[in-house]
């Protein structure tokens, strides 16, 4: 199997979390197979989450952590995002990271249009895996909510900038998961990491 360049983002804003453990399991298995991994931890990133009143013509300068994240995103062939499901969506700080970092000129090109008049995506040729932790069982996410969070991440974030396909692994219910269950989840993530998928 050819080695892949992988960026892993722990999208949980807390210093310790199941999301972080999943990231560590993925990274360890990927590196053991020779894949090259760059890791970013949202809890350690300090930046202004608010895009504010700036337009695309005069957006705020990126803080060094955001510029480093975007550079690694451009470098990577495969993107791994671990995030909890909070109130039907992703944590506010993670949304702020995407608001601030995915800008025209590096993530999409407003001077060119692609399908249906959308800006031309600039991060094409990459794939993604989302490790989603939730207390809502997967069947309820699908039946009652139409997989809204998955559509939001895969189509309106990843797909918009050209990263596709985005595959999901869901771990639920997560809050009170017993140790044996968590170990099973970590083993599943290790398999994904070893295959760089």
TrEMBL record:
Keywords in alphabetical order: Oxidoreductase
Gene Ontology MF terms: NAD(P)H dehydrogenase (quinone) activity
UniProt entry tagged with the keyword DNA damage: no
Residue ranges of domain Flavodoxin-like fold in the record: 5-184
The keyword Cytoplasm is assigned to this record: no
Pfam family, one: Flavodoxin_2
Gene Ontology cellular-component annotations: cytosol
Similarity annotation: Belongs to the NAD(P)H dehydrogenase (quinone) family.
Name of protein: Flavodoxin family protein
Organism: Parasedimentitalea maritima
């Amino acid at each position: 199997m050819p080695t892949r360049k992988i960026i892993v983002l722990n999208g949980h804003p807390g210093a310790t979390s199941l999301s972080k453990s999943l990231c560590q399991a993925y990274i360890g298995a990927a590196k053991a197979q020779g894949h090259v991994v760059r890791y970013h931890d949202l809890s350690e990133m300090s930046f202004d989450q608010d895009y504010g009143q700036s337009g695309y013509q005069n957006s705020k300068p990126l803080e060094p952590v955001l510029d480093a994240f975007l550079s690694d995103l451009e470098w990577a062939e495969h993107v791994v995002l671990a995030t909890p499901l909070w109130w039907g969506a992703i944590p506010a700080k993670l949304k702020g990271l995407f608001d601030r970092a995915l800008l025209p000129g590096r993530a999409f090109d407003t001077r060119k249009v692609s399908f249906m008049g959308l800006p031309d995506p600039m991060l094409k040729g990459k794939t993604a895996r989302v490790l989603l932790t939730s207390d809502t069982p997967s069947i309820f996410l699908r039946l009652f909510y139409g997989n809204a969070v998955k559509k939001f991440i895969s189509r309106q974030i990843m797909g918009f900038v050209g990263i596709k396909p985005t595959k999901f692994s869901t771990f639920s219910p997560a809050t009170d998961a017993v140790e044996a269950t968590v170990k099973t989840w970590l083993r599943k993530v290790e398999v994904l990491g070893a295959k760089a998928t």
